[in-house]
Amino acid sequence: MRSQTLESPEPAVGQLAAIPGQTRKRRQLRLRRLLPIYLFILPATAIFLTWTIYPLADALVMSFYHWNLLTPSVFVGLNNYQRALSDPIFWQALRNGVMYTVISVPGQMVLGLAAALLLDQQIRFRAFFRTLYYLPVITSWVVVSLTFLYLYNGQVGPINYLLHDVLHIIPSYIFFLGDPNTALPSIATVNIWKGIGWTAVIYLAGLQSIPQEVYEAAMVDGAGRWQRFMKITIPLLRPTVLFLVVMLVIGSFNTFIQVYIMTNGGPLHSTETVLTYMYRNAFSSLDLGYGAAISYLFTLMLFVITMTEIRLLRRRYEY
Amino acid sequence: MTYQKLAFKALIYLLLVGGALIMIMPFVYLISTAFTPNAFVLQLPPPIIPPHATIQNFIDVWTTENFGRYFFNSTVVATCSTALTVLFSSMLAFAFARYSFPGKNLLFYSMLMTLMLPTLILIIPQFVLAKHLHLLNSLQGLIIVYSAGIPLNVFLLRGFFEDIPRDLMDAAHVDGASIWTMYWRIMMPLARPAIAAVTIFSFLANWDEFTWALTSISDSNLYTLPIGLELFQQQNSNNYGLVFAGSLIAVVPVIVVFIIFQRQFIKGVMASAVKG
Description:
The complex is a heterodimer of chains A (319) and B (276). Chain A is built from 15 helices and 2 strands. By secondary structure, chain A is mainly alpha-helical. Chain A has 2 domains: 61 residues, no CATH class; 235 residues, MetI-like (MetI-like fold, Orthogonal Bundle). Chain B has 276 residues and is mainly α. In chain B, helix 7 packs antiparallel against helix 10.
C-alpha cells in the first residue's frame, strides 16, 4: 500500500518526510518515483534542448565571431554588434519594421473587430461567412505572396485594373511592388488582408466571454446600441486587445516570407525587414556571425517592445 | 422600429458580403488563372472566368515540373513530423499537468519564453548544427527540425489536460497503473478533441513550412511544395498559369482539412487566446 501512496501524482511530501531517519531509502524511493517521469519527458525535452536552447546559446557565441563556414572562425568581440549599430541598412530595416507595424496592426485591429462584430450578429450562413473570412489565414504565405505578386502586377494586374479602369481612382497603372514609395504599404496591406480572419476569431472569443446579463441590464437602464458598445463591449474586451496587440506586433516585426518572395527587400531596401537582412547576410554573404548579432539585437528590441506594450495596456485594467 | 431593424440587418449583410468579396477575390483570380492556358494569362481585362478553360496546367506541373514528387515529399515530411511532435508534446504536457518533479518550472517557463522568440533567429545556429549532424539536404533533417515545434503544443495541451477531472486518474493509480498506461489509456482517449486540434495545427504548419526547407534543401528531388513552388516561380516568373496550378495543389489539401475539422480548429485558436 505504501508504495502506491508514494507514487501518487501529487507526491505525498508530508508522508515521505514522516519516515524518520532513513535518508538513503527516501532518496531511493524518490528516484524510483521520478525516473519513470524523466524517461517519459525525455524525448520532448531532448529535442527542445537540442533544437531550441542549444541554438539559442550557440547564436550568442557566434555573434562574437567572424564566422563563415569556409574559413576558421575568428573571435571579434563586440565587432558584429558595433557594425550592426552603424549599418544604415540595419536601421532602415528597423524603421521599415515600425512602418509595417504602424500600418498593419491598427488595420487588423480595427477591421478584425468590425468583422467579429458582424459575425457575432444573428445572421444566416454565419459559419459560411466565418469560413470565408478565415480562408486567407490558413493559406500559406508562399501561396499568398505569389498570388499578390500577380494581383499587384504593374502592367496587367487585377488591382491596377480595378483601381484604374473600373473605379477610376488612379490616373495610371502603378508598379506597386517596384516603386520604393508603394512597395512597403502594399505588402503591409497583404498582412492586413491575411490577418483579419484570425484577429476576428480572437475577438469573437472575447465577445462570447462577455456575459449576456451585462447587456440586458444596460438595456433595462435604457442604453442604446452605441452606448452598450462603448461602455460595455470595448472595456470588457481589454484583455483580448492586449493579447492581440502583443501577438500582432511580434508577427509584424517578424515579416519575412512575404518580403522574401514579393520583393526580396527591394527596391532600394524599401521593404527590407530585419529578418530578410539577417537571412541575406547569413546565407547569401555567408556572414553568419553578423547575422547572429543582428538576430540578438532584434530579439532584445522585440522583448523591450513587448514588455512596454504589456505595461502600457495593463494599466487601468480593473474590470 | 421594425423599419429601422430591417435597415440595420440589410447594412450588416451588405458589409458582410462586401468583406467576403475582398477575402475571396484573390482566390478567384488564383483559381481562374490556374485553369487558363498560358497564352491567355496576363491580358487585360484580367479574366475572372478563364477563357478556353483547361486542366493542362495541372498536368504539366504535376508531371514535367515534378510537383508530384514535391507533393509526395511534403506528405511524408508533414505526416511524420506531425506524428512525432504530437506524441512528444502530449507526453510532456501530461507530465506537466499531472506530476511534479524537480526542474518542472524551469522547463515550462523556458518553453513559454521561446514562444515569444521569433523562430527565424534560430535558423543560423540550426543550420550549423544540422550541417554537423549531416541533416542538411535530407527529408529526415526536415522531419527532425519540424518535430521541434513543441512548445506551443505543450502549452495548449497542458491547459486542456488540467481541466480533466483528477478522479479518473486517481482510480487508475490505486490499481498501480504506470505513467505510460495512464497517459495512453486514460488521458489520450479523454483528450481527443485537444489532440485533434493540435494535430491539425501542427500538420498545417509543417505542410506550409518554407524557410527551413529553403535553407536546408538544395537537391530538387527533395523539394517540398512550398519551396518547389517558390523556386519554380523564380524561374518562370510570368507563367502564372503553371505557378497557380502548383499553388492550388499545395493549398487545396489545407483548405479541405480546415473545412472538415473547422470546429476543433476554431476552438483551438480561441483556446490559445483565452489561455494566453
